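Quick one: structure for this chain?
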Amino acid sequence: MNRLLQFAHFIDLCNRQIGRASVWLILGAVLLSALAATLRYLFDWGSNAMIEAQWFLFGLVFLLCAPWTLQEQGHVRVDIIYTRLSTRWRAIVDIVGGLLFLLPVCILISVNAWDYFLLSFQQNESSMNPGGLLWWPMKLAIPIAFSLLAAQGVAEIIKAVAVLRNQSASKHGD
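Got it. Here's what it folds into:
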């Protein structure tokens, strides 16, 4: 179990670092938005690429911070019930939810999104807007992000099993 916990902590570390680095993309999106608005109102000049880059940056933040959010117990759940459960039952809910819902959905999306990316890459898909961006790089982020989310799901399941086996301090604070 110790090796599995070390593996889970490695996944935690990777996703935490990716999440923390991705947060800086918000600043990039804000600065890009301010620049686009300034150029549009002061110089009557706009750029589809700048607008699309803002969308892409926001999408990357959402995708790449999802595993970190899961690690920090920040995803929406029915907290009114979950928080009233004992540590043991919360661990059971986390294991069942991870195995029945999180992992299958992440794997399904990762596999299908990979095909979606490959088609886009092969066609060198780009925006239909004049001066728009290539779309395949953003489409590559989808299977990567859902693979990271699946890995974090595995880490959460490992930690929940450790809680059930009394081999780890509770991550739920009980």
